[in-house]
Design goal:
Layout: E1 2-6, E2 9-15, E3 22-31, E4 36-40, E5 46-51, E6 56-59, E7 68-70, E8 72-75, E9 82-86, E10 89-97, H1 102-106, E11 117-119, H2 121-124, H3 127-137, H4 141-156, H5 165-176, H6 183-190, H7 194-205, H8 209-230, H9 237-243, H10 249-260, H11 264-277
Antiparallel strand pairs: 1-2, 2-3, 3-10, 4-9, 5-8, 5-10, 6-7, 6-9, 8-11
Keywords: DNA-binding, Transcription, Transcription regulation
Protein name: Helix-turn-helix domain-containing protein
C-alpha cells in the first residue's frame, strides 16, 4: 500500500482488490482552500466512487446544468469529459472497474450505463449505501480496502451470465493493438461481420469497437504525457502522437479536445497535482 502526499491532496493506493475485475483502488483525502472543478477524462474503465464526506456533484456539461449529487457514483464508458465539483473537504475511494467484469460484480452489463454516470445504488442496490457507511466508519485505509475487497469478492462469487466470447476477445484484441488495429481485421479475428460485431459489442459495453479503440489509444497517449510530467522529462507531443498510432501531433490534439475539452498543455495545467500524485494505472492493465 502506497501513500502519495501532494499538499492539499493525499492518495492511498489500495491495489487491485479483485485483480480480474478491478484495475485499481485509490483512497483519497483533500483539504482545499475552495471548491474546485475536476475533469474526469474518458478511459477504458468504469469508475465507481464512494465518498465519505460531501457528495460528488458530477455531469457532462461544464455549466453544471446536468449535474447530479450523490455519495455513490458509477460511470460507464464515455467519450467526453465528465466535470466533477470537488468540495473543499472530501475523502473516499475510487475504483477503476474492468467493463467486462461489471456483469460478474453487479449483475448488469456496462452497456446499460451508456455514457452516463448514475447513482450507484441504482445498479448495486441498497447494500451499496450500507457498504459506504461502513467504510466511512472505519478508521484506517487498510481496514477500508479489506472490507471493500470482501464485499466485491462476495458479489463476484455469485453466478451471473458471462459476456459473449466474441466481445471478450474483441476487447482483448483492441487492448493488444493499443487501439490501432482496423475494424475489418478485428471482425475477421472474432469471426463476425462488422455490423454484427458492432451491435453485440455496443450492447455489452455501451460504445462501438471503433470508439473503444480510440479510447484505448488516447489512454496510452495520456499515460505517456502524465509519465513525462511526473518524471519531469521534456514533453514531445509529436513523439507521443507517433508512438501511440496517431497520424500527427494535430490528430492527438483533436482527440484531447474531444476527450478532455481542452488542449494537452491546458489539461496538464489544470490537473498537474493529480498527475504528479500518480493515481491511476498503465493502459496495459485494461487488457482483460
Amino acid at each position: 500500500m502506497t501513500e502519495l502526499d501532494q499538499g492539499e491532496w493525499r492518495f492511498v493506493e489500495g491495489g487491485q482488490l479483485v485483480p480480474d475485475a478491478v484495475v485499481s483502488a485509490v483512497g483519497y483525502t483533500s483539504l482545499l482552500d475552495q471548491p474546485a472543478l475536476h475533469r474526469g477524462l474518458p478511459s477504458p474503465a468504469l469508475t465507481l466512487v464512494l465518498t465519505f464526506d460531501e457528495p460528488v456533484i458530477s455531469g457532462f456539461e461544464r455549466s453544471g446544468q446536468d449535474a447530479d449529487s450523490t455519495h455513490l457514483v458509477l460511470g460507464g464508458l464515455h467519450t467526453r469529459p465528465a466535470y466533477i465539483t470537488q468540495p473543499r473537504v472530501q475523502s473516499g475511494i475510487q475504483l477503476a472497474v474492468r467493463p467486462l467484469a461489471l456483469r460478474r460484480l453487479f449483475g448488469v452489463p456496462a452497456g446499460e450505463l451508456r455514457e452516463q454516470a448514475v447513482d450507484a445504488r441504482e445498479v448495486l442496490g441498497s447494500g451499496a449505501e450500507d457498504l459506504r457507511q461502513r467504510l466511512a466508519e472505519l478508521t484506517s485505509w487498510p481496514e477500508r480496502f479489506a472490507a471493500l475487497a470482501t464485499y466485491l469478492r462476495a458479489n463476484a462469487a455469485e453466478a451471473s451470465p458471462e459476456p459473449r466470447p466474441e466481445v471478450v476477445e474483441a476487447w482483448k484484441w483492441i487492448a493488444w493493438h493499443r487501439g490501432t488495429g482496423s475494424m475489418s481485421a478485428l471482425a475477421r479475428h472474432v469471426h463476425l461481420g462488422e455490423r454484427q460485431l458492432n451491435s453485440v459489442f455496443k450492447a455489452e459495453l455501451g460504445i462501438s469497437p471503433k470508439a473503444a479503440s480510440r479510447l484505448m489509444r488516447f489512454e496510452h497517449a495520456r499515460q505517456r504525457i502524465a509519465r513525462a510530467v511526473r518524471e519531469r522529462t521534456p514533453l514531445d507531443l509529436a513523439a507521443v502522437a507517433h508512438s501511440c498510432g496517431y497520424y500527427d501531433h494535430s490528430h492527438l490534439v483533436r482527440d484531447f479536445q474531444q476527450y478532455a475539452g481542452c488542449s494537452p498543455s491546458r489539461w496538464i495545467g489544470h490537473e498537474l497535482r493529480n498527475i504528479q500524485a500518480g493515481a491511476g494505472q498503465p493502459a496495459e492493465e485494461f487488457a482483460v
